[in-house]
């Protein structure tokens, strides 16, 4: 009789474990929204008007985006809740390249190992940050080279 109770307890434990198989994280969205950029590197002249475009996608819906580049005064943001947090959103933002945009400049660059060295930079890096409805985030960049 003493051997039956442990066997029953073991069988019950195994059957409960089998019934609850699966990853508990399956119920959570841990996938960042994605962006498809057809032209992420653009060469322009000072004073040109350019349009930055990307297709933002996420299964749970794209909730918001922001674009910023302080050196040129580029700033924009939007919540997409008013249009129902679409699973596919076509982003478009038009900017004017300043007449005094730098052609090149010195910049400190830090590698992943922590070492820092000086580089000559020629591409302006405009960040597009966007979120899905459960606050997963992604950041993509547009690289703009000013020729003159």
Total count of strands: 10
Task: Give the count of helical stretches.
Answer: 1
- The run of helices and strands is HEEEEEEEEEE
Name the quaternary structure.
Answer: single chain
- Helix content estimate: 10-25%
Low-pLDDT residue spans = none
SS class: mainly beta
Radius of gyration: 25 Å
Write out the strand line-up for the largest beta sheet, numbering strands in chain order: 2-10-9-4-5
Name the overall outline: elongated
Largest sheet features: 5 strands, mixed
Q: What would the keywords be for this entry?
A:
11% helix, 5-stranded mixed sheet, 1 helix, mainly beta, 148 residues, 3-stranded antiparallel sheet
Would you give an account of this structure?
This protein is mainly beta and 148 residues long. It is 11% helix and 48% strand. The chain has 1 helix and 10 strands. It has a 5-stranded mixed beta sheet with strand order 2-10-9-4-5, with no helix packed on it. It has a 3-stranded antiparallel beta sheet with strand order 1-3-6, with no helix packed on it. A hairpin with a 4-residue loop joins β9 and β10 (137-146). The longest helix is centred in the N-terminal third of the chain and has 16 residues, at 4-19. It is elongated, with a radius of gyration of 25 Å. The chain starts with a helix and ends with a strand.
């Amino acid at each position: 009789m003493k051997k039956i109770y442990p066997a029953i307890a073991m069988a019950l434990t195994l059957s409960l474990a089998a019934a609850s198989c699966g990853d508990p994280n399956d119920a959570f969205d841990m996938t960042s929204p994605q962006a498809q950029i057809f032209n992420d590197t653009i060469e322009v002249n000072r004073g040109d008007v350019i349009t930055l475009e990307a297709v933002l996608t996420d299964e749970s819906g794209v909730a918001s985006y922001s674009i910023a580049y302080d050196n040129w005064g580029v700033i924009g943001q939007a919540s997409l809740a008013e249009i129902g947090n679409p699973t596919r959103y076509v982003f478009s933002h038009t900017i004017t390249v300043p007449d005094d945009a730098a052609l090149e400049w010195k910049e400190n660059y830090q590698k992943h190992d922590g070492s820092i060295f000086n580089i000559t930079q020629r591409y302006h890096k405009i960040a597009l940050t966007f979120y899905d409805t459960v606050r997963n985030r992604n950041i993509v960049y547009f690289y703009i080279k000013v020729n003159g």
